[in-house]
Write a structure and sequence with these properties.
InterPro entries: FN3_sf, Galactose-bd-like_sf, Ig-like_fold, MetalloPept_cat_dom_sf, P_dom, Secre_tail. It comes from Vicingus serpentipes. It holds the Pfam family Por_Secre_tail. GO terms for molecular function: metallopeptidase activity; serine-type endopeptidase activity. α4 packs across α5. The relative contact order is 0.06. By secondary structure, the protein is mainly β. Strands 1-2-9-8-7-6-5-4-3 form a nine-stranded antiparallel β-sheet, with helices on both faces. Strands 19, 22, 26, 28, 29, 31, 32 and 33 form an eight-stranded mixed β-sheet that branches. It has eleven helices and 69 strands. The protein folds into eight domains: 152 residues, no CATH class; 221 residues, Collagenase (Catalytic Domain) (3-Layer(aba) Sandwich), CATH 3.40.390; 124 residues, Immunoglobulin-like (Sandwich); 99 residues, Immunoglobulin-like (Sandwich); 96 residues, Immunoglobulin-like (Sandwich), CATH 2.60.40; 89 residues, Immunoglobulin-like, CATH 2.60.40; 151 residues, Jelly Rolls; 76 residues, Immunoglobulin-like (Sandwich), CATH 2.60.40.3080. Helices cover 10% and strands 36% of the residues.
Amino acid sequence: MKLISKFAVASIFMGAFSLSLLGQSSSPLWKKIEASTLNSKEKVHRNNIPTKAQYFALDFNQLKTKLTAAPNREGFTGKSNLIIEFPTSEGKIEHFRVWDSPIMHPDLAAKFPMIKTYVAQGIEDPTAYMRFSVTQFGLHTMTLSGTKSTNYIDPYTSDLNNYVVYDRNSLGPDTQPFECLTKEDDAKLRSIEKDRNSGNTFKADADDMKMRKYRLAQTCTAEYGNIFTTGGGSDAANKAEIQAQMTITINRVNTVYEIDLGVTLEFIANNDDCIFYGATNSDPWNGEYNTATQNFLNTNIGDANYDIGHNFNTSGGGNAGCLACVCTDGSKGSGMTGRGNPTGDPFDIDYVAHEMGHQFGGYHTMNTCSRSGNGQTEVEPCSGSSIMGYAGICSVNVQNNSDAHFNYVNIRDILANIKPGGNSTCSVNTDHTNNPPTADAGDDYIIPQGTAFVLEGTATDPDGMGSLTYNWSQNDPAQAPSSSSPVSTWTSGPLYRAKMPISSPNRYMPVLSSVIAGDLFPTWEKTPTVGRSLNFSFIVRDNDPLGGQTASDLMKVTVDGASGPFAVTSQNTTGITWNSGGTETVTWNVANTSTGNVNTPNVDIFLSVDGGYTYPYTLASTVPNNGSASVTVPTGAATTTARIMVRGSGNIFYALNSNNFAIEDAEFVMNFSSTSATPCPTENAVYNFNYNTFLSFSETTTFSASGNPAGSIVTFNPTTASVNGTPVTMTVSNLNSGMVGSHTITITGTSTSVTKNNNVSLEIIDPAPLAAALALPANAATGIDPGITFTWSAGGTGTMYNIDIATDAAFSSIIDNASGLTSNNYTSSSLVGETTYYWRVSSYNNCGSAPTSSVFSFTTSSCSTIASTDVPVTVSAATQTSTITVPNSGTIADVNLLGLVLPHTWVGDLGATLTSPQGTTVQLFDGPGIPSSNFGCDGDDLDVSFDDDATSTSATFENTCNNAPAINGFFQPLNALSAFNGENMAGVWTLTILDSYPTEDDGSLDAWSLEICTEPIPTGINNSYLINNIAIYPNPTNNLLNVTLGKDNTANVLVLTDLQGKVVYELNNINSNTIQIDMSNYGKGIYLLQVKGQNESKVFKVTKQ
């Protein structure tokens, strides 16, 4: 807000009329004008002038007349019939449904009838949520939208007839200094975290269909009051001017609080008793505001008569006075915000909404600038950019001012505080009919390093308003390694800035325009080039003016340091032109993404015709991720700005080619229904295509082929074509076994003036594969790790394999099998320790089958050792993690952590924990050398192992401090590793290194391994119906998985988990021999199905395609 009369601040409002005005720049209320025509008029004083704005004349009196028909929002159902038009920062007129929405107690409103507030929702843009005020200082609006930057309308001339319309991006930095002096209470934050992690009553969202109204006692100093009144009028008139400015500010604060939190603030009935002006020594404040405000409210208002108290002043700082203390007697009235010019967006959003956010339970979000809290909320890089950040007042700023939204962590914590069970539940709640939306952040993914990706959420709105907005934010509060802008090699802390909610549920990381420009590392969205985890929050807002509702969900992206960058390697030079209907080749760098941790065997290929911003054409779906694919250029896609996207099928990573290229419509094209064939040597290869013409082309085209195997014969039927739509069949015959292998055939269409080529692939497969020769595990081998990969000899081109693994030589007790394998290796997730197994492989292709291999046996060890693969990682933050994924299922009998190599100065700063896939955490050590020394062991480096049976105790570890390595050898952990016993070992194990002084000393985690021993298979059970009589099909499956139990089967429990150990399906007390599990909504990948009986269990690997 800005200053009118003496310095009065004002903003604007908008009018109404027929929807036929859509897109126009004027209306019965508004007339677009040039700023130069107002040069002779007195202007409203502003400290911050928009760099780009639109100017409109307003019929202010007509607007006020129209607003008398606005229905009161409280208790209202349905849609308001009052429609008023407002200008946008783009110079257009848009329409809004308007409700009367008072934010003053009726008694206070009766004293100041000239002060009115309203809420409105866009019609052309349903995501647009507006609050505006009508006062003696004119009209002030604030509009949040998912399609454009925050819009404002403020008075431009002092006569209140002309208004400036601008967006948030057009405002420059706020040059007034500011400091938030709120002290964040670690103990209270830990209490909130404890409540959150209990998982029972905590909810992160505004989703209970209530609008929470809190009574606001808003005080001000005389210095603040004197800015807005000349003091020459009556006391009531002077206070009316000051109350109007307070209303303008709180009305804009309410815009955000209503959308994000379902909270609205209402001035108390006697708020005029809180207003001061005139002599500056006449008010209760003398440079101290928190205690003075609390004491004033206690004495003059009374604890029972308000819920939150705040003070406006002209100091250069803010201090909430307390955290999560709204409704708490003795502290709820101690907040304050001060600015030399306490008006406008920086004051309202950056400071008032920020300090009140503390009072409601929100903590700072900036990760490194003035970092505070205990590491649970600092999820935004450097200064941050949401309300609870420090945008514009840090040495390294994401941007100059805060965006008008709360981060997920703030919504989470504030809602925990104001919902039942929190500290601030004294609101008056109004039930409304707006149903909450739903939010689904999707599956967790593993992606290659150095590669762009896109986060894709889904949501529903039961009310069908079309008003949903979406917000993705990184959710990694660990302290970044330095206070600089993000660096791609950071393994902790946030790499991606927070952004305003938008109308799309997807967020490209980094922003798509940067990827198009070839920049994967813009300053505030750094693509990681090392292995690490990225956690993300997904918030859906429904922006309903009756009461905002939200939904949220979380997901994780694991960046694999052993793969990537995934990159398109074709179409990267200038001067490239494709012809419609032609066959072209797209190539890319697979970069170890088809196997390994990323394990994405297929890709999808898309075409953009607008320079890479949208991709309406699918050139290929689920083609092998082998680095090359032939695609057919679509017709009707002529452009000079074509781009290619190659994306992992069923994954979120992608890459673009680096240059625009052209597509031209051709005179004719040969549109193949399929460009590949895999015949046996005794068969023919058949390809079908349609001959299509364009541009009035009518010449006769003759077809020919080259590149076919020597001795083969290629024929076309018909041999020529001239009519659009002619079907043509190409046959390759006279094949033989000497032609086995891959061939590329070029089909040429030749007319009098034009020649076109298309390529097809021909892969002639072996007439019958060779029998598999088993390799590993070797026959009669012992001590085999249960996680071993089975390998055997390759059977030749086009060969597929079936493998059986059993506990008896007759294969009557098969514990695992797989069919249709295309590679000559397989890793089972069903092996356990101390067991003898038998295995065999059969080979086949489309032409025939080979004899089954010989049978090998082997015996497993009861223990397996798995080493970490994401090391080394730098230990430069308060917490640093490394993970090991155990693919095999088994009941844990013993766990040891081996070979922990941790080069680090001053090891007394360090601690470590180990967390199982089921979430059990064991403290390995904590600050060696403490308490015998307050600062712990000052030696360098650890090279240790932990075993409950080690002869050296944890106390010995505690008291050891040598030269490098400071501590070396086997030790008992601080807490027993036996806490993991009885759990399933499958899934992700996390080692967390804790550093008490991350900025003082340096180090790295170089290596560690897990040795896990499992319980042996139960013995003495004869005629095991559980083992012998279970059928799982189809496997792999796309949706339904059938589980059939034998007639006398004793199974009574089914449990389906992912490889992280998360239970996704469980069925107890089985009473049917046939069970169907719907897996259609599960992510693609491997799952473990455990069938439990009274004395034993069996685990099957299930593949979801």
